């Protein structure tokens, strides 16, 4: 495992990935802003300003990753990943603001000015409006702009996949969210590339750039909505879970027959949802009554806490099977097979797979006292079961397994049927 960790590049860690994204945006912003100002392209300018905010976002995420890595201490009260939903919320809100103000409004006013150039003076009366420049570009500047946007789209798509991969590998939702935002940037640049290229082939379609801007704004709003919704659910879940889990756990603990459980609480719109996953023994009866009782008691608690809309979900899962593999010494006494004997009888063993102490598969293996240890290690045996009449024989078997750490267990009986072996031949694989 240590060797595997040493081979991982620093850029494939959360900190390294976000540093790479920061460097990418530091190169892209001047690469788009300069030609955007030179050619008066609203798409290039808007995208440059948009990615200027991405630089700040990348810096915030880097800080969030460092705080998240530190764990919950007096210096870092948010603890691991506790601050990440808030940064994700900021990413989504800033993305939505840029979509509406910097790109959406500018595109709308661009279309208005194309349809009615005389309305420019009336629009300028309103302060703080992003009014685009009405300058018709020549073919060469458009080709340069298309090249910039095309290369940018390819780079953003590649980096978004890289970001999302690192986020999933290290379970950092914040980096995944920013990867989705990077992919959204790539879709915007691809749309802008298509729009500018269309202007090159059809110069009279100069206004198409503003329609592409509206499409960009729409895509950005969709991405922003997904990020904000997910972050808001996480923030609410963190606040509610701390208030409800302890009391609800006490309610569940009072019900017999539940071996273990988990409790989750979160919001769906204005409805609070409490999910309980309980582990029960197999073939347990009366689950319907237990589910109804839990639902009523938790519902009463939520109503007392002022929750008018709530939903309680109780799901039962069967206790998982306990499987192991053991070996039994099989020897003959008076013409019949028994479990047990002495070391001199150690010529064959029965390797059995058990599920909840019930044998469901077995196979005989020939062996000797000298080879028994290596055989049981090879077969990954958990214990060697033998019925011994005295402690001396038991210690002799332990000497045969010395160094293997496989325990020698006293079988409950020398009879195969009592131990659970019906017939060694019938259990043969």
From TrEMBL:
One Pfam family name is: Cation_efflux
Reading the lineage from the top rank, the first entry is Bacteria
Q: Name one GO molecular function term.
A: monoatomic cation transmembrane transporter activity
GO (cellular component) term, any one: membrane
Which InterPro entries does the protein's record reference? Cation_efflux_TM (IPR058533), Cation_efflux_TMD_sf (IPR027469)
Q: Which residues cross the membrane?
A: 9-28, 48-65, 86-115, 143-160
Protein location: Membrane
For the Cation efflux protein transmembrane domain, which residue ranges apply?
19-228
Q: Report whether Nucleotidyltransferase shows up as a keyword of the record.
A: no
By its UniProt entry, which Gene3D superfamilies does this protein fall under?
Cation efflux protein transmembrane domain
Q: How does it sit in the membrane?
A: Multi-pass membrane protein
Q: Which SUPFAM superfamilies match?
A: Cation efflux protein transmembrane domain-like (SSF161111)
Entry keyword annotation includes Transmembrane: yes
Q: What are the entry keywords?
A: Membrane, Transmembrane, Transmembrane helix
Name of protein = Cation efflux protein
Source species: Candidatus Uhrbacteria bacterium GW2011_GWF2_41_16
């Amino acid at each position: 495992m240590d060797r595997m960790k040493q081979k991982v590049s620093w850029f494939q860690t959360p900190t390294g990935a976000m540093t790479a994204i920061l460097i990418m945006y530091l190169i892209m912003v001047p690469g788009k802003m300069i030609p955007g100002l030179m050619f008066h392209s609203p798409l290039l300018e808007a995208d440059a300003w948009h990615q200027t905010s991405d630089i700040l976002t990348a810096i915030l995420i880097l800080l969030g990753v460092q705080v998240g890595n530190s764990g919950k201490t007096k210096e870092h009260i948010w603890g691991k990943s506790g601050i990440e939903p808030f940064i994700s919320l900021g990413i989504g809100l800033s993305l939505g603001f840029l979509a509406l103000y910097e790109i959406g409004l500018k595109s709308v006013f661009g279309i208005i000015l194309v349809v009615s150039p005389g309305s420019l003076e009336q629009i300028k009366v309103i302060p703080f409006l992003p009014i685009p420049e009405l300058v018709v570009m020549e073919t060469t500047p458009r080709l340069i702009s298309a090249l910039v946007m095309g290369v940018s789209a390819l780079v953003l798509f590649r980096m978004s996949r890289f970001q999302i991969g690192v986020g999933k590998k290290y379970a950092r939702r914040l980096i995944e969210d920013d990867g989705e935002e990077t992919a959204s940037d790539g879709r915007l640049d691809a749309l802008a590339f298509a729009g500018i290229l269309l202007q090159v082939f059809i110069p009279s379609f100069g206004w198409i750039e503003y329609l592409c801007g509206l499409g960009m704004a729409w895509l950005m709003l969709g991405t922003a909505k997904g990020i904000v919704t997910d972050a808001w659910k996480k923030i609410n879940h963190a606040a509610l879970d701390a208030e409800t889990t302890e009391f609800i756990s006490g309610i569940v603990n009072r019900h017999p027959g539940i071996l273990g459980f988990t409790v989750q609480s979160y919001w769906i719109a204005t409805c609070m949802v409490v999910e309980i996953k309980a582990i029960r023994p197999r073939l347990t009866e009366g689950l319907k009554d237990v589910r109804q009782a839990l639902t009523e008691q938790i519902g009463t608690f939520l109503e007392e806490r002022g929750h008018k809309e709530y939903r309680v979900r109780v799901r039962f899962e069967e206790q998982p099977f306990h499987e192991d593999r053991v070996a039994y010494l099989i020897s003959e006494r008076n013409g019949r097979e028994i479990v047990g004997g002495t070391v001199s009888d150690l010529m064959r063993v029965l390797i059995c797979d058990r599920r909840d102490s019930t044998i469901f598969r077995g196979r005989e293996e020939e062996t000797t006292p000298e080879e028994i240890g290596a055989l049981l290690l090879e077969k990954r045996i958990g214990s060697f079961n033998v019925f011994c009449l005295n402690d001396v024989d038991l210690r002799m078997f332990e000497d045969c397994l010395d160094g293997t750490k496989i325990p020698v267990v006293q079988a409950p009986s020398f009879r195969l049927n009592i131990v659970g072996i019906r017939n060694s031949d019938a259990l043969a694989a």
